[in-house]
Amino acid sequence: MPPLRFAYYCSGHGFGHATRVSAFACRLLSIPGVEVFIVSSAPARVFSQCLDQGAHLRQADIDPVIVQPLAYRVDRRKSTEVLARFLSRKDDKLLVEVDWLRRERIDCVLSDAAFLACSAARAASLPSVLITNFTFDSVYSYLATPVIDRDPPSILPATEPDTPVPSAELEPLVNEIHGGYRCADLLLLLPGHIPIPSFGIEPSLPSTGWIARNAFCHDFTDEISDLLLQDQTSIPILPHIDPHVTTPRQVISAPLIVRTPTSKIYTAEGRTEFLTSIGIPSQYHNPEKTKILAVSFGGQTFRKPNSSATNTPARASSPALDDSQVVRNNHAHDLKLNLMLPNHHHNSSPRQSNQTLASASPIATPSHIFVPGAPPAINTSPVVASTPTFHNYSPLPEEPRFLPSGDWIAVICGLSHAAIQEDHADLPDGFYIAPPSVYVPDLLACCDVMLGKLGYGAVAECVDSCAPFVYVSRPLFIEEYGLKRFLTTEGVGVELSRARYELGDWAARIDEAWMKGRMSKAQKRLRGETGQTTAAAQALADRLVDWTLERTK
After folding, report:
1. If we measure between CA atoms, which residue out of 512, 292, 500, 291 comes closest to residue 401?
2. For position 217, which CATH number holds?
3. Each residue's pLDDT tens digit, 362-376
4. Is residue 101 within 8 Å of residue 126, measured between CB atoms?
5. CA–CA distance from 445 to each of 282, 353, 434 (Å)?
6. In angstroms, what is the C-alpha Rg of the chain?
7. Closest CA to 528 of 275, 266, 285, 271
8. Do 445 and 505 reside in the same domain of the chain?
9. What ranges does the record give for the region Disordered, renumbered to this chain (predicted)?
10. Which domain holds residue 204?
11. N or C terminus of the chain with fewer C-beta within 10 Å?
């Protein structure tokens, strides 16, 4: 019997897509007679697991990206421009993909979650499968939301005022994305999902109607929340976009697809070996004596605050302070935290972004503290009462601290090679930098709390490792609302406001998350790696192969 050949298209937006594509490709490759060809603009290193098992990688520009000048900020205008440019070349790209699918004798197209892949499969008369928890028609549609993600003014272009994109401008662009997804025959719906409008009849686009417009609470409307509680495999779904296709489209609820830690990481020897390999001194290897915070937003650089109390126990937050009090306290402490976050614009190299941000100097003024690579912490500009606004600021304690106590250390992962080569002699006490090759699932197995932005990869790996997650919100990316629901039900999530994050005031939220999740973490370490997550993903891979064989008879 000839091999069954899958083309697995992976979005280049963020590493969460790549990590789960790599994990599921490994499961497919474990089935005799299966070949996997990954198509993506993401770098080869994020697919190392499946490439080591025999997957092939073809790097290609197969989807636009949401432009995020900061890890938790979306640039609506630039994102729309990137989408429009991509769609202007869509027909040419489609011809390239159809020709490649035929030359490689592909049997089935998988997509996470590139709409062009589904269109190409239809044009090549191949079955296609969406494997995802969200689709980009919803994401781009939400760029029209009137709710403003308001940050203080900044000298960085990354913090220009947030302005909704007119619905009339977005609608024809979103319709093209939506039409691509409509070509898919099967949806493998991952945990943490939001509505998939190319499959479910309800709700329809635009996605701006899915979120309650409340300036103080941002979540799905009651109608959407109720819909997501239903069995998604039995909801009414849209027919195939081709009327001559009589085989019904189908939705299958997928288990957690995630990279899993190595089997020995939960042993004392495995933990010591791993922590030693990433440069953590031996005195910090005992989990009974030292707690570990994993920090990951992408490339970033930390500068030590001048306060000498960085690792002293966190004090309880003082009574409500107004903005002027917060600023005076911060200015008095001369807190200088320089966070260099990645520029995800597709035309900017990491090295260029790092050099640009690193050249800026921290500035503290009576009105704000400037954090290179992130918005200023305090917004003193007036807020238009008629415009719903995301409120990212809350009263701060008088002495911001990174870590709850001297019993904690922090491990920063996700830095580029260029950033690691810089001088980090002034890192805060107890902070260490992991090498770019660090295997994050093993780090999460060792750590006690994770700090980062909400994305599928981080959430899924935290849930799998029972690591409590302290997250900084990214409210204009609509996937976040599904991930927050999943994290609330299956793990521990604690939100850290941008102001607290940028001021280095992490300690109270880290301690809160640890207290909520420490029992589950302890039980996970006792159980060790059971293989249940891998077994569930393997069962799904087996089912997908059977489905494909039926469709290709």
Report:
1. 500
2. 3.40.50
3. 222 333 322 223 333
4. yes
5. 17, 31, 15
6. 23
7. 266
8. yes
9. 303-322
10. 4-259+532-551
11. C
